Automatic annotation (TrEMBL):
<feature type="region of interest" description="Disordered">
    <location>
        <begin position="1077"/>
        <end position="1110"/>
    </location>
</feature>
<keyword id="KW-0560">Oxidoreductase</keyword>
<dbReference type="Pfam" id="PF02913">
    <property type="entry name" value="FAD-oxidase_C"/>
</dbReference>
<dbReference type="Pfam" id="PF13183">
    <property type="entry name" value="Fer4_8"/>
</dbReference>
<dbReference type="InterPro" id="IPR017900">
    <property type="entry name" value="4Fe4S_Fe_S_CS"/>
</dbReference>
<dbReference type="InterPro" id="IPR036318">
    <property type="entry name" value="FAD-bd_PCMH-like_sf"/>
</dbReference>
<protein>
    <recommendedName>
        <fullName>D-lactate dehydrogenase (cytochrome)</fullName>
        <ecNumber>1.1.2.4</ecNumber>
    </recommendedName>
</protein>
<feature type="compositionally biased region" description="Polar residues">
    <location>
        <begin position="1093"/>
        <end position="1102"/>
    </location>
</feature>
<dbReference type="InterPro" id="IPR016171">
    <property type="entry name" value="Vanillyl_alc_oxidase_C-sub2"/>
</dbReference>
<dbReference type="GO" id="GO:0071949">
    <property type="term" value="F:FAD binding"/>
</dbReference>
<keyword id="KW-0496">Mitochondrion</keyword>
<dbReference type="Pfam" id="PF01565">
    <property type="entry name" value="FAD_binding_4"/>
</dbReference>
<keyword id="KW-0285">Flavoprotein</keyword>
<feature type="region of interest" description="Disordered">
    <location>
        <begin position="43"/>
        <end position="83"/>
    </location>
</feature>
<dbReference type="GO" id="GO:1903457">
    <property type="term" value="P:lactate catabolic process"/>
</dbReference>
<feature type="domain" description="FAD-binding PCMH-type">
    <location>
        <begin position="120"/>
        <end position="351"/>
    </location>
</feature>
<keyword id="KW-0809">Transit peptide</keyword>
């Protein structure tokens, strides 16, 4: 395909790790069908911005910095859908003050961005990606002018359909709304922007021993905007510490564009002048409730004694007389129907340092619910109920905490946690709790544990129920999650009625669980919507469910998940005519033109809950379990550039459905074309999505599988030639880097950048140069054996580190990484063995990531065979100097082949492979003399390291040894975590698509610059990642081995410990000790993971079982 006379290639085809020269890319280029990156008017997004800046122009009307290269590509006119005239006019006006990439109308992104975690589907006509409050103000003004309703979106993890629309979706760009400001030295108050993830807030507050009150199970994914708009609570906070009761101030934008900050007296005074009528109406409503309608007042008091998010938070009218207090508490739980929330100030709650948890098994749900009544009077902080169906869905995780086997058809679990300031107090509380449940029949004795690793596994079970149980649903069905509450004494009876209801309506897979201490149940089941009878079955069940909960038991139809579209038709059933009329008056007072999220929370259509249902067609076995919860999105480097993992799955489902039905060929063609760039080219395929997914869905594996299916015979031939002559490919890579280095020295960085951009426009498959690319490297020579050493190690320098030498822009003492690694090993007294035929060896990852699985397996098998021989059949440890290569080698299952020297699978032992941090921690800390270097450092744990159990914690231990300071939970630490899940480099993909790491690392430079002790350098454990990190952090990044080398010296030989016994024990460990599922994360191994009630780092507590109780 041609565009403006230039041939556009689809993706880089050269080796992801070894950076061969452009000549290799040209050889491979014909194997890939040409495709236009349809979001760009030129060959690449960078080219668009480079040309604009060269001409002295910005990237758009909102860009005031000519040097600023925005990360998102621009949509073309051909990419937009045909809009109604008022929306087309609105889009034109919006683009006068927003960049084009902020105003989205193409079919791919409107579908992708418009999807949330609910089972409803509406596709917005426009998606407006806002970065600042003034953009929201202007957008709201235009929406009113053109009569276009607006819905607000933060993380999109809501379950009731409150964040979708077929009009205009105002979508936060999270990195632009992520400021956290702790307001006092004790951390008792915090100001948060709406794009802050709840878990991020808790991580910061953990430095003060505090956390925010709400603790929903999605806290590591949901954002403050949604937490506030839905009045989130959770497992531990109950009603006392929910959003409503911990909010101190709020900053909002009303439908007419007026900004109110209740923390500012000046803002209050201005608002009183401009909106005195609104304040008067709120005061009048409160007076009516408190003095003129005793029945409604009593109903409000009773219903808010338990969790309740059905309708508006009209308890504000009973609790306050100050109109500003009424206003800000009405905004809480209003689901975006009254105002846009641009900031909140919250009162934080203590995070008690000592915790103990227990899984209690009861013979049936009735007995478990009866025990809850007793526990409500005991010193407990959380009590979670799970029925037998939950046990089935989480059997693998439960087995890790010793719960396996059959416990009866009606068994129920209570997961209980208690917390305290001291260990003695904790022991007393445990004794009290155990005594409270002693009268009730139990399947097994009660056991409490204070071991963080164990109790976090327990709570991981609870947090993962929604996705894991949902993943068991039949393909093409949706997951429905209802959320109800009742007074605890009535919990058992209501639970039995609901179980009976599910049986009669044939929902045999229904799961019941929830926050039992608050009488709050979650009801989860699978539902197909592809036929009229199925829709009618769901409608009949919902009618009965609402009658049982609201009418028979006087409970809450929505306890904490928000009303949304799901329960909007039933709000009047729960609140009666007076309560419902009051809520309508509130909506009219704030939003007289019904522009803000209409149809949500209040809706007169009695069938709205069974309309606009989301299809969930089969797409691929790798992702069919996905329920589109969005937990994965926070880890994805392309989430603000193109698509997140959830959105890739959404689009791929749509493509597959259109292929099957052949219903809209034009739409299918456009989605396929756009998916090539948005779904494939900019996917790092790093597997980090799986680490956040409760069912380990690896969307990157799907993308790599799709790449493999598209490879032509010519591409396979070229890839095979590269695999067979890999030493030549390596040599070409070194030559290219050396040539670039010479060019840089001769013509300078500015000219090199311009030449690279020009080449990239002509040949988009070529990598783009940046000043942090190193000169060509070299393969190391084996050092002579030491006369006194009895210990040996096999060292495998990765192909990237053999190709890439010393960085031209960094002070590396003139030594490439292999030289530094040999220096460290020599100081530790090791004899180093280098594998035979090193120049032609590769772990295979580069081929796999490009969609060449056959060649990837060939190279991985070759490497395994060589390492098997070099390590004396697995007896010696093997050090890889790059974490991604180590992970790939660890997860590879070699093909038995005697011609390669591989034994039969049944006789084969697993190689003991270590990445740099692992090896340093496990073998070098005790073999070297340490001289700590007290200097500020920023460290980045690569995505591959995060997928290996315990490496992140070992990284901290190594850094502590090198700097003399623990990276502990305290202010002023020398060590700064990059806080970046993935840098987006993905081998060399980040050079060919530099917008990917630029987007992933957009906040890093600011973070490093604001670190109080200052950072002189950064450390990591992947060479290619360090190139991107250096470019975007403002400080040079190098391998952690450089730091280890500088901070260490040889021990006195007499003092050096013998490690032969330790090595022997290590090599006898089961292969499972290092087993890592390539499709997902390793099991948790950190002793500082969050417990039930927080996502902040847990303070270490005494480990082991405190006591067993009968």
């Amino acid at each position: 395909m041609m565009l403006r006379g230039r041939v556009l290639l689809r993706r880089p085809l050269h080796c992801a790790a070894c950076l061969p020269p452009p000549a290799t890319a040209r050889l491979l280029a014909p194997s890939v069908p040409a495709a236009v990156r349809s979001w760009s008017t030129l060959s690449s997004p960078r080219s668009v911005h480079t040309e604009a800046h060269t001409a002295g122009k910005g990237c758009g009307p909102a860009c005031s910095d000519p040097s600023h290269a925005h990360s998102s590509p621009r949509p073309t006119k051909s990419g937009g859908q045909q809009l109604p005239e008022n929306y087309a006019a609105l889009a034109r006006e919006l683009r006068k003050f927003l960049r084009e990439d902020q105003v989205v109308s193409d079919p791919l992104r409107t579908l992708a961005y418009g999807t949330d975690a609910s089972f409803y589907r509406l596709i917005p006509k426009l998606v407006v990606q806002v970065e600042r409050e003034d953009e929201v103000v202007k957008a709201l003004g235009l929406a009113e002018r053109f009569g276009a309703p607006i819905t607000f979106r933060a993380a999109g993890t809501s379950l009731s359909g409150q964040a979708i629309t077929d009009s205009v979706l105002l979508r936060l760009v999270p990195s632009k709304w992520s400021h956290i400001d702790v307001l006092d030295p004790e951390g008792s108050r915090v100001r948060l922007q709406p794009g802050v993830i709840g878990g991020q807030a808790n991580k910061v507050l953990g430095l003060y021993g505090r956390k925010i009150g709400p603790d929903p199970s999605s806290i590591e994914s949901c954002m403050i905007g949604g937490i506030t708009a839905n009045n989130s609570s959770g497992m531990c906070c109950g009603t006392r510490q929910n959003t409503y009761n911990t909010i101190e101030d709020i900053r909002i934008v009303l439908a007419d564009g007026t900004v109110l900050d209740t923390a500012s007296q000046e803002s209050r005074e201005r608002f009183s002048q401009s909106h005195g009528h609104l304040l008067s109406e709120l005061s009048a409503m409160a007076h009516h409730v408190q003095h003129s309608n005793p029945d409604l007042l009593a109903r409000i008091k009773r219903k808010y004694s338990i969790k309740n998010t059905t309708g508006y938070s009209i308890n504000a009218l009973a609790d306050f007389t100050d109109p500003f207090e009424i206003l800000k508490h009405l905004i809480v739980g209003s689901e975006g129907t009254l105002a846009f929330i641009s900031g909140v100030t919250m009162r934080t709650v203590p995070e008690l340092p000592h915790k103990a948890s227990s899984i209690m098994l009861f013979p049936d749900v009735i007995t478990a619910c009866e025990a809850v009544s007793a526990l409500k009077l005991a010193p407990v902080d959380a009590v979670e109920l799970m029925d037998r169906a939950c046990l089935v869905s989480a059997r693998d995780k439960l087995a890790q905490v010793g719960l396996s086997g059959e416990h009866g058809q009606d068994v129920a679990i209570l997961l209980v946690e208690t917390r305290a300031d001291t260990t003695d107090e904790l022991a007393d509380r445990v004794e009290h709790v155990a005594k409270a449940v002693r009268p009730y029949r139990k399947v097994k004795e009660v056991q409490f544990t204070s071991d963080p690793r164990v109790f976090n596994l327990m709570w991981d079970v609870r947090r993962g129920i929604i996705p894991s149980a949902g993943a068991m649903r039949p393909v093409s069905t949706s997951v429905i999650l209802e959320d109800v509450a009742v007074e605890v004494p009535r919990l058992a009876a209501m639970t039995m009625d609901l179980q009976d209801m599910f049986k009669r309506h044939r929902y045999d897979d229904a799961v019941i669980f929830g926050h039992a201490l608050d009488g709050n149940l979650h009801l989860l089941f699978a539902q197909g919507f592809d036929s009229r009878p199925e829709q009618e079955r769901y409608g009949a069940m919902m009618d009965e469910l609402c009658a049982i909960v609201a009418t028979k038991y006087g409970g809450s139809l929505k306890a904490e998940h928000g009303t949304g579209r799901n329960v909007a038709p039933f709000v009047e059933m729960e609140w009666g005519k007076d309560g419902y009329a009051l809520m309508k008056d509130i909506k009219k007072a704030f939003d007289p033109h019904h522009l803000l999220n209409p149809g949500v929370l209040l809706n007169d259509d009695p069938q709205i809950h069974v309309k606009n249902l989301k299809p969930m067609p089969a797409a691929h076995s790798l992702v069919d379990q996905c329920i589109e919860c969005g937990f994965c999105e926070k880890n994805c480097p392309s989430r603000e550039l193109t698509l997140s993992p959830r959105q890739r799955i959404v689009i791929w489902r749509e493509i597959q459905q259109l292929r099957r039905t052949k219903s809209d060929p034009a739409r299918l063609a456009e989605l396929e074309q756009q998916f090539r760039y948005a779904g494939d080219d900019t996917c790092a395929a790093d597997g980090m999505c799986a680490t956040a997914c409760p069912v380990n869905i690896n969307t990157g594996q799907l993308i790599k599988t799709l790449r493999a299916t598209e490879r032509s015979p010519w591409a396979q031939t070229v890839a095979q030639a590269a695999a067979d002559h890999f030493a030549l490919v390596n040599g070409m890579g070194r030559t290219a880097l050396q040539a670039a280095h010479v060019g840089h020295r001769v013509v300078g960085a500015r000219v090199m950048r311009a030449l690279s951009d020009a080449l990239h426009r002509v040949l988009p498959a070529s990598p783009q140069w940046n000043p942090h690319l190193p000169r060509g490297g070299h393969a190391p020579s084996p050092p002579p054996p030491t006369a006194t050493s009895k210990d040996q190690v096999v060292y495998f320098p990765s192909c990237a580190n053999r190709v890439m030498g010393v960085s031209t822009s960094e002070k590396t003492e003139g030594r490439a990484l292999p030289d530094v690694a040999l220096s460290v090993l020599g100081k530790a007294g090791y004899d180093v063995i280098l594998p035979e035929g090193l120049a032609g060896l590769c772990c295979g990852m580069a081929f796999e990531s490009r969609g060449f699985p056959h060649q990837a397996r060939q190279k991985a098998d070759e490497l395994h065979a060589v390492l098997w021989r070099a390590s004396d059949h697995g007896r010696l440890p093997v050090l890889f100097d790059m974490s991604p290569c180590a992970l790939h080698a660890k997860t590879h299952k070699p093909t038995p082949d005697e011609s390669l020297g591989l034994p039969e699978a049944k006789k084969q032992q697993k190689l003991e492979i270590f990445e740099p941090v692992e090896f340093t921690h496990d073998f070098l800390l005790s073999r070297l003399q340490w001289t700590p270097r007290e200097e500020g450092l920023v460290y980045h744990t690569t995505c591959s390291s995060k997928r290996m159990a315990g490496v992140d914690q070992k990284f901290l231990s190594v850094l502590k040894q090198c700097t003399g300071e623990a990276p502990a939970k305290r202010l002023g630490s020398l060590l700064l975590d990059s806080a970046v899940p993935c840098c987006g480099m993905a081998g060399d993909r980040g050079l060919c698509f530099p917008e990917l790491p630029r987007s992933a690392l957009k906040k890093l430079r600011e973070r490093v610059a604001s670190h109080p002790p200052g950072c002189s350098e950064g450390v990591s454990n992947s060479r290619t990642c360090e190139v991107a990190l250096s470019e975007h952090a403002g400080v040079p990044f190098r391998s952690v081995l450089y730091l280890v080398d500088r901070a260490s010296s040889p021990l006195n030989p007499a003092a050096a410990p013998s490690t032969s016994a330790a090595l022997h024990a290590l090599l006898q460990r089961k292969a499972a000790a290092y087993a890592i599922d390539p499709s997902g994360p390793a099991p948790p191994a950190s002793p500082t993971l969050p417990s039930a009630c927080t996502q902040a780092d847990a303070t270490p507590t005494p480990t082991g079982l405190l006591r067993n109780y009968k």
